[in-house]
Write a structure and sequence with these properties.
Layout: H1 6-23, E1 29-31, H2 33-43, H3 45-60, E2 71-88, E3 94-116, H4 120-187, H5 192-227, E4 235-237, H6 249-259, H7 261-281, E5 287-301, E6 308-321, H8 329-395, H9 401-435
Parallel strand pairs: 1-4
Antiparallel strand pairs: 2-3, 3-5, 5-6
Helix pairs in contact: 2-4, 3-4, 4-5, 4-7, 4-9, 6-8, 7-8, 8-9
Length: about 450
Amino acid sequence: MCDMKPQLLLKTALTTLLLMQFCGVNAQEALTVEDAVNIALKKNFDILVANNDAETAKINNTAGNAGMLPVIKLAGTGAYEENNEYQKLSGGAVNKYPSLTTRSLSAGTELSWTLFDGGKMFVTKNKLNEIEALGQIEFMNQVLQTQYDVIAAYYDVVRQKQQLASFNEIISYDRERVKIAEVGYNAGSMVKTDLLQAKIDLNVAMENAINQQSVISAALKTLNSLLGQNPDNVYVISDSIPLGYSPNKEELLQKLNTANTSILASGKQVDIAKLALSETRKSYLPLFSLNAGYYLSNSENSEGSVLHNRLYGPQINGTLQIPLFSAGETKRKTAVSRTALLSAEYNFQNTSLLVNTVLQNTLTDFENQQNLLNIEKENNAVARENLEISLQRLRLGQTTSLEVHQAQEYFVQSGTRLINIKYNLKLAETKLKQLISSL
């Protein structure tokens, strides 16, 4: 292309442009299922929200949030007072200050640090670790669910396009029937009802094709919604559903408990509940905290025995708290945490059972769809041959249009079943991969 002369390049470009304008061609972007999944991973709103939730759990997982680090702050106060003061001393002397003004200023750096809380802070940090891990698992679960939804929506568009192709094929058969019936009717070898039936079937087939265009448009909008795209975006979608996956039942069962995100999330919920119970029990133990700082204060009085006072220097103190009676609050919270742990364990067992049931059902469905596919492929070939023979018999005047109509119905039904079986087989394959996080 780089060796072509500029005039030839210009001529080629103009010719292409004129052809596009003449034919009304609108350039459409090709979209593979892999492209669709990649777009969804970047723009799907459910994934974006799940990512934010996981990021929030990560941000919260800090030593400071667990109470392991000190808190340091700078504090300062200033005040101005004007008072009418009267003092009577023990010796009998009386001091009167009818207009005493006081100006005071104080500042200091304070440190507060819990040094011992029965180990609660370390349990809290472990709980934050588990919450962050749970956030990542839930994010991955949303990613896998979105991938499944996108794949299902993509191949639904393919399925509807295949259905349209089937309708168009029937239209071609119907048009041939109409021609045969017109020739036969004009020749006197066919009755008019044969011609009318052929025309009716042709019109019905054309109506089906028009309606199927609306179905394809709706399926594309559903796909665009999952991709976070404009609903009106139009893509060039594949015309086939690739099959050939062969699941290994033993491998699926082995990977299920270690890779399935629902089971992993439920397991993390149990771990978090155990740590929450341990965290609550730590409230029975003593707490020791350290407070330290460096302070400066300055005050000035307009009258009195002390006109100016200034203090500065470090201060340190410790506080020991030993829980003796909490009105049963710690006991109550411990009982609640223990019940929450029991519920988390029940939920884990239930989730494991449900996921294993889904796996078994999906494997059964996959095997059934494979068997149905083999039968329907043969049935579809037979229905096509039967239709073509019926058309040939109609052309030779050996049958009626009603027989051809019936043969067409069998062929349409078989084609629809075949398309749906392929789609269902693909869904079963995708579900099996989703269950072991291998999409």
